[in-house]
Amino acid sequence: MSNTIGGLFLIGLVLLTANSQEQQAVEKPVRPKPANSFEEIDRYLQAQVDTAKASPVAGIALAIVEGQRLVHAQAFGVSSLATKQTLQAEHNFHIASISKTFAAAAILQLMEQGKLDIEQKLVTYLPYFKLADKRYRDITLKQILNHTSGMPDVEDYQWEQAVSDEGAAERWTRSLTKKKLRAAPGKEFYYSNLAYDVLADVVAKVSGTSFEHYVKENLLAPLQMHTSSFLLSDISPALRTSPHSGIPLSVNRVYPYNRMHAASSTMNSNVVDLSHWIMANLNKGVYQDKQVLSPQSIALMQTPSFTVDVKANRRIGLNWFIVAYQGETLLHHDGADEGYVSTLYLVPSRNIGFVLLFNSDEVNSYAITEHILQQLLARYPKNQH
To answer: What is the DSSP-derived secondary structure letter of residue 127?
Structure first.
């Protein structure tokens, strides 16, 4: 399965307008108790697990943020059908394309430091980058960030190879010489995991350290996302979930990890950690009084930079997708890879956001996302903030 889910989820939203020791090993951070219960949402998500024949679900984790507070975090189902371990909110998932929001943030952070300029050509930073199409010389970092580079998508992620060495990013960039553009740079929207993966090499060359280390030290650490990482080896076995596919649902033989696809797809995280990312994005880049990204960078990520679909009024910032929904402007990114689906939404006008993580890829995530969204829009009226 390709994780070109950003576009697919946009379409889906429009169409929907419609073993015990392991458990003890999971550390539970103290979380604030919500002022009001979210029992209806919890019942609904539990029902999705209990009635999995219609839409196979192994486990679902949810976090809801109101302003700078994590008001609800809960999990339903199991971390693995093989072990039947009860899923907890602190369990980690492969979050697929939500990874891109961190890759984009890393690029913008480096721009804040004066180490790069997103308006500059990619070849400025990676002179060995080359495609079988002379127009490749015109591709800018900004065009990669908003998927207008014209570059094609990944055809085979080769998850079974589980590439994990530090040279993977540069090898990926150097492997693209036979690829041709789908469109002239800057002219059309083509969702490209392939292009995003090149950004890991950019971050490494500009920062002087690996992409994964840069993100960990400069984004995840200040965000206090201590159990998240782009390196699978960093994730405690006690915190891992298993990917599930098929009907009937079963545990996948292969876990989706290949360091060549780090920037587009391979971050592992949980809903508690991701709630910190939501808070920073709702608060002009600040998390617990620490400026993780500048307000200007947050604005660049969240301001429309290209129209994806004129008729449906679907746009993209520098990575966040921006959609009109029932009179509201929503920012979101979604993801799907073998055995996992993820979705993260921000509603800036109501100062709320939520993240849903699923460790199965047959789940009807569109319907579940819509239900949670409807509940939260009803709960948090516009004029409350």
So the answer is: T
Instruction: List all residues 6 or more positions away from 25 whose beta carbon is below 8 Å from its beta carbon.
Output: 236, 238
Distance CA(153)–CA(40), nearest Å, equals 40
**Residues sharing a CB contact under 8 Å with residue 337, sequence separation 6 or more, in sequence order:** 1, 3, 94, 96, 157, 159, 243, 256, 265, 361
Q: Could you tell me where the beta strands, DSSP code E, fall in the chain?
A: 59-66, 69-77, 93-94, 244-245, 250-251, 268-269, 286-287, 290-291, 306-309, 314-316, 321-325, 328-337, 340-347, 352-358
Maximum pairwise Cα distance, the chain: 58
The gap from C-alpha 341 to its chain's centroid, in whole angstroms, comes to: 10
CATH of the domain at 85: 3.40.710.10
Structural contact between residues 212 and 262, judged by C-beta atoms closer than 8 angstroms: yes
- Tell me how many domains the chain contains: 1
In a domain, 378, yes or no: yes
The mean predicted confidence, pLDDT, of the chain is: 91
Least trusted range by pLDDT, from 5-9, 192-196, 313-317: 5-9
- Distance CA(346)–CA(315), nearest Å, equals 15
Residue 128 located in a structural domain: no
Supply the pLDDT for residue 20. Answer: 35
Range of the domain at 13: 5-97+211-384
pLDDT of amino acid 313: 87
Question: Count of CB atoms within 10 A of residue 127's CB?
Answer: 10
Tell me 60's DSSP state. E
With beta carbons less than 8 A apart as the criterion, state whether 131 and 181 touch: yes
Is 18 among the domain residues?
Answer: yes
The answer to whether residue 190 scores a pLDDT higher than 90 is yes
Single pTM value for the model: 0.91
Q: Please tell me the distance from the alpha carbon of residue 238 to that of residue 243, in angstroms, as a whole number.
A: 15
Contact criterion met (CB below 8 Å) for 14 and 312:
yes
156 domain-assigned: no
**What would the two tokens of residue 342 be?**
């993820």
